[in-house]
Design a protein that fits this description.
259 residues; alpha+beta; Immunoglobulin-like; Arc Repressor Mutant, subunit A; 11 strands; rod-shaped
Length: 259
């Protein structure tokens, strides 16, 4: 009887030892899992990509003037499909702006006309949007390249030499162009005042016509050639109602324009 009891106790002890070993092994595995450092496994990367913020142009509104372009970038994702739409929640096209060129993570957008539209990037099944605001184009008004005194002189000269109402704009501009051509010719003074008041050249400076108030049309034509330059060849330096110089370039109205 005592032998049986002793044998039973040994068996229980062995089973307890196995359970303890199993428990220790399981505990050790749990400890190892919790203290293993991050190793950049695929599962970690998937979690990171899923929680990363995706934005177009960092979420800000992009403002363009008509005709201007800008590159807009997508952050947080790749391989996007791009759309320009009229509404934030639609892919319906618009004529406010267009996509000039595109990559998987960026596009070049050009403003077409004043208005508002949306640049949408589709990543998998989701859309990420940037508001595009197109303003009017910048002023292209040419900078004034002449003085008020030059306008005064040339408009009075045109009016005094060819101020009649029946004289065409082309003839008035050609008369003024001779003055500009002479200013660039070494045979004549280099200033407008010097050319116009050169002795014996323009009759209107001594017959009283130069002092008359120029017409609005004479002023307009003076501004035109002061802004755009001579309307006749640069070597045409004579203008009169008779032929002079080395030959005729052209006759416009009653005036001969000569070399």
């Amino acid at each position: 009887m005592q032998r049986k009891i002793l044998k039973f106790k040994v068996e229980i002890k062995m089973k307890c030892n196995k359970l303890v070993k199993l428990f220790v092994l399981l505990f050790a595995m749990i400890i190892c899992i919790t203290i293993i450092p991050e190793t950049g496994l695929t599962t970690d990367n998937i979690v990171y990509a899923a929680t990363k913020t995706i934005k177009v142009n960092k979420g800000a509104t992009k403002t363009l003037s008509t005709g201007a372009s800008a590159v807009i970038k997508l952050s947080g994702a790749k391989n996007a499909k791009w759309y320009i739409s009229s509404k934030k929640e639609s892919n319906k096209s618009t004529k406010v702006a267009k996509i000039s060129s595109k990559e998987s993570t960026s596009v070049k957008v050009t403003g077409l006309k004043k208005g508002t539209c949306y640049l949408r990037a589709k990543v998998k099944s989701k859309y990420y949007t940037c508001k595009i605001k197109v303003t009017s184009s910048k002023s292209t008004t040419a900078k004034k390249t002449y003085t008020d005194y030059e306008l005064y002189l040339l408009s009075h000269l045109i009016n005094g030499e060819a101020g009649s109402s029946w004289i065409s704009d082309a003839e008035q501009r050609a008369v003024g162009s001779v003055v500009l051509n002479r200013m660039k010719d070494k045979r004549y003074p280099s200033t407008m005042e010097g050319v116009i008041y050169q002795k014996g050249q323009y009759a209107c400076t001594w017959d009283g016509n130069f002092a008359k108030k120029p017409s609005a049309r004479a002023i307009k034509n003076a501004k035109y050639i002061l802004t755009n330059g001579s309307t006749i060849p640069s070597n045409v330096v004579f203008q009169a109602q008779f032929v002079q110089g080395r030959g005729i370039w052209s006759k416009i109205g009653n005036h001969y324009f000569c070399y």
